[in-house]
């Protein structure tokens, strides 16, 4: 992704923290320094040796906290958000330093701290840990000890995917994906994109609270989490859009099976390929049980990234990550993803990373479905229909879980 799309700054990550009331800048600087001291990943740079990137863990050092004051702006909140967008779209040089902390003053009692990082050193789970740790360090509270630092885990993973256990991992995924084909997405948009049009289409719809509650209840009745429920709905939507019954999509798993890394910051996430089979006359609950079992097996074998599978394991036109499904915030609560602060994620949810990325974002008592796709491949009307179908199907299966796809 960095090689093909890195110049589009799609590999920046952000943790955004709103401080209400007075801001103790001295305490914040101290918290930022201690955060970098606590997590080796935040002070890890990368150097190229032949065709490999090698981690260089730098010793702790004071980290510059940049300060921006937009309180005198006619619309301070808008100015702050524009600065967040600029931060997210400005590349982080991982060879120099992987993080860029900034404090934005919106008003006398409203400050926004943003930690922009290269994706090499963080992921969604890590962002949640950083949000938690920063608050605790700023308040002078105690934190659990970090078990393994990232470099220790990297060495363990290398052994796991090249040692005696590797054969079982490869055999599982070859068995799961035997005969699988990529999703046959629509042809490219017939009308070329205009020069002033954005390169990416973004569509967002919210699932009603009572439907969201029904989805969680359905998950509990089927003894699973909401992730397989939302993924099963995605298979149904793709089935309706493409006519395919055998559907393989990519997803990102946390890849933290080792208890030693529960509090470790780093890029652990592993891309896996999840294959669902839709039968026209089977109840939705049957599809859900199939998806639940497939996801559970995927979790047990997530240490092997899909990129390491032999070429041609999944056949068809395109890339294996062309269609990506994610449920954000599904493992660790994200304080910076709640309430009105979801607005700050708009820039993060509009980045170009995959040809079609479908993301479900938990927000208080609702779920928000977001589709981001390549404007040169998908029309805005097609994207809107897909998300609308998804939201309507969610309501339909809550009303009748025995509903068949036909």
Walkthrough of the structure:
The chain has 406 residues and is α/β, with parallel strands linked by helices. The chain folds into 2 domains: 2-143, Chloramphenicol Acetyltransferase; 167-399, Chloramphenicol Acetyltransferase (2-Layer Sandwich), CATH 3.30.559. The chain has 10 helices and 12 strands. Helix 7 crosses helix 8. Residues 330-344 have low confidence and may be disordered.
Which regions are unreliable across 5 or more consecutive residues at pLDDT < 50? 330-344
At CATH level 2, the architecture of the largest domain is 2-Layer Sandwich
- Major sheet characteristics: 6 strands, mixed
Order of helices and strands: HEHEEEHEEHHHEHHEEHEEEH
Strand content: 15-25%
Distance between the termini: 38 Å
Give the proportion of residues in helices.
Answer: 25-40%
The tally of helices reads 10
Instruction: Give the tally of structural domains.
Output: 2
Average pLDDT reading:
89
Query: Can you tell me the CATH topology of the largest domain?
Result: Chloramphenicol Acetyltransferase
CATH-level-4 superfamily name of the largest domain: Nonribosomal peptide synthetase, condensation domain
Spatial arrangement of strands, main beta sheet: 7-12-11-10-8-9
Structural class by SSE content: alpha/beta
- Rg over CA atoms, rounded to whole Å, is 22 Å
By DSSP, the count of extended strands is 12
Protein name: Condensation domain-containing protein
Pfam families: Condensation
Organism: Micromonospora rifamycinica
GO molecular function: 2,3-dihydroxybenzoate-serine ligase activity; phosphopantetheine binding
């Amino acid at each position: 992704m960095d090689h093909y799309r890195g110049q589009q700054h799609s590999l920046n990550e952000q943790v955004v923290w709103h401080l209400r009331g007075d801001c103790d800048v001295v305490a914040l600087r101290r918290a930022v320094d201690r955060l970098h001291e606590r997590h080796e990943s935040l002070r890890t740079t990368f150097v190229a040796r032949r065709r490999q990137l090698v981690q260089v863990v730098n010793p702790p050092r004071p980290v510059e906290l940049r300060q921006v004051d937009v309180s005198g702006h006619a619309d301070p909140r808008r100015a702050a958000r524009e600065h967040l967008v600029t931060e997210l779209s400005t590349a982080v040089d991982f060879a120099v330093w992987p993080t860029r902390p900034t404090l934005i003053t919106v008003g006398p009692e409203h400050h926004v701290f943003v930690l922009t990082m290269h994706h090499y050193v963080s992921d969604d789970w890590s962002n949640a840990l950083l949000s938690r740790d920063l608050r605790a360090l700023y308040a002078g509270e105690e934190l659990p000890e970090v078990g393994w630092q990232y470099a220790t885990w990297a060495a363990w993973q290398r052994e796991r995917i090249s040692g005696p256990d590797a054969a079982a991992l490869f055999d599982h995924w070859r068995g799961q994906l035997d005969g699988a084909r990529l999703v046959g997405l629509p042809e490219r948009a017939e009308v070329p994109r205009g020069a002033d049009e954005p390169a990416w289409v973004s569509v967002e719809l919210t699932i009603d609270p009572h439907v969201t509650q029904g989805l969680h209840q359905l998950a509990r009745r089927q003894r699973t989490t909401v992730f397989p429920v939302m993924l099963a709905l995605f298979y149904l939507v793709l089935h309706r859009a493409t006519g395919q019954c055998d559907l393989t999509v990519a997803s990102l798993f946390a890849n933290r099976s080792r208890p030693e890394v529960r509090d470790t910051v780093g890029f652990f996430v592993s891309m896996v390929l999840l294959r669902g089979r839709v039968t026209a006359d089977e109840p939705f609950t049957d599809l859900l049980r199939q998806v639940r079992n497939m996801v559970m097996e995927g979790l047990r074998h997530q240490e092997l990234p899909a990129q390491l599978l032999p070429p041609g394991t999944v056949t068809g036109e395109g890339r294996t990550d062309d269609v990506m499904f994610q449920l954000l915030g599904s493992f660790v609560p994200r304080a910076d993803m709640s309430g009105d602060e979801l607005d700050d994620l708009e820039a993060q949810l509009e980045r170009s990373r995959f040809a079609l990325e479908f993301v479900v974002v938990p927000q208080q008592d609702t779920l928000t479905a977001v589709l981001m796709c390549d404007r040169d491949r998908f029309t805005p009307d097609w994207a809107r229909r897909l998300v609308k179908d998804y939201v309507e199907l969610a309501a339909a299966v809550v009303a009748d879980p025995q509903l068949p796809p036909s």
